[in-house]
Amino acid sequence: MVLLAAAVCNKGGKAIISRQFVEMNRSRIEGLLAAFPKLMNTGKQHTFVETDSVRYVYQPLEKLYMLLITTKASNILEDLETLRLFARVIPEYCRNLDESDIVDQAFQLIFAFDEIVALGYRENVNLAQIRTFTEMDSHEEKVFLAVRQTQEKEAKDQMRKRAKELQRQRQEAEKSGRAPSGFGGGGFGSSSFNRGDRGDSATIIDTTPSEPTKPSYQAPRIHVRIEENISVTAGRDGGLQSLELHGIIKLKINDEKMARAILNIANNDKKGVQMQTHPNIDKKLFASQSVIGLKNQDKPFPVGQDIGVLKWRLSTQDESFMPLSINCWPNESGNGCDVNIEYELEQPNLELNDVLISIPIPSGVGAPVVGDCDGEYNYDSRKNVLQWNLTVIDSSNKSGSMEFSVGGHPDDFFPVNVSFVSKKSYCDIQITDIKLLEDDSSAKYSSEVCFYVDKYEIV
Description:
22% of the residues lie in helices and 39% in strands. It is an alpha+beta fold. The protein folds into 3 domains: 132 residues, 2-Layer Sandwich (Beta-Lactamase); 132 residues, Mu homology domain, subdomain B (Immunoglobulin-like, Sandwich), CATH 2.60.40; 99 residues, Immunoglobulin-like (Sandwich), CATH 2.60.40.1170. The protein has a 9-stranded mixed β-sheet with strand order 13-15-11-10-25-23-18-21-20, with no helix packed on it. It has a 5-stranded antiparallel β-sheet with strand order 2-1-5-4-3, sandwiched between helices. A 4-stranded antiparallel β-sheet has the order 16-17-22-19, with no helix packed on it. The relative contact order is 0.11.
């Protein structure tokens, strides 16, 4: 077949976008497109019409037409097959299938059209390949980003070295009782400068009254991060196939005085997690008193680094341990499926934030029609996924549901994927206090908890 052009038209025959694939002057293609609505008024029920020179092959898309213009010598069966592929591409990029949506996605559609036809001839591609080709990453962009990241890292390293050098100079100056180089200028104290090549120097005294010094913010001398990630695979008919959780306590010492600190841990876990301390941590002390301390006090914690001091792991098939259960019920109807999906918070002590439940939608069936919905939703036509968004799930709204209708088969709506974050530990492991080993006094510290999803799917 030789495909001259492809266009999306409205019911009146007006071309919204058009792409020609062979050499043809503008007036010629405009004349062919203008003739199409006149041929549509003949009352024929076929999906193609012919003139003396070309064939129009078309398919209705709600308020629009997908139109191909081919030569009369082309194979009509191949024409119709190609038309169906073009028609399936449109819903990939356009959610509402109206004129404004077509205009908004014009460039994406044209790029997709170019993947189907080259120089007037059909390429051997399917819908999945078209999606892959149009979304393919640029190698040059990856190289550029890698170079930029390297440059940023080198700049940060230089800044750290400079900061350490300035800190060393300041400490040496404080020991000798003089003002450090690079500090105390700009109207505070004194500074010296060289007089050309004479080798002598002069001192400038600033007599401007200085304002009272404001107290500066001091970062905590220690920071503790409790991090957990979870992987869950559950069956669509109920039952947990696997649940695996990994946790770690990371410690960052910002002051050398804290390098021999000890951490008091509250282990409220009732799920039976397996714990393991770092080799440099006193295991007996932790086992007997839930205290994280150094095994050898001559080897203090390093300063300015994140150090993992305690890890834990949980693996189970007990579905009562699931943070969130998801039930998806697709029921076949006359034109496709009616789908009801619901969630239930299984751990009432948790608070899940930024919850995203993603349901796959078959390609080429258009946007789903959503009925009742707790929270918000969004249909991504390019990825063929319906995204159900919930800002927070806790004991006050531990359950919710969404209903929608769309074409397809019940198997098309799996796997359902879930993601969330939480500021509460799944295993309820907490830092209660940090003390200085020398005098057993409590130290100021900051802490954070991050519980997040590595993989969470209902298959």
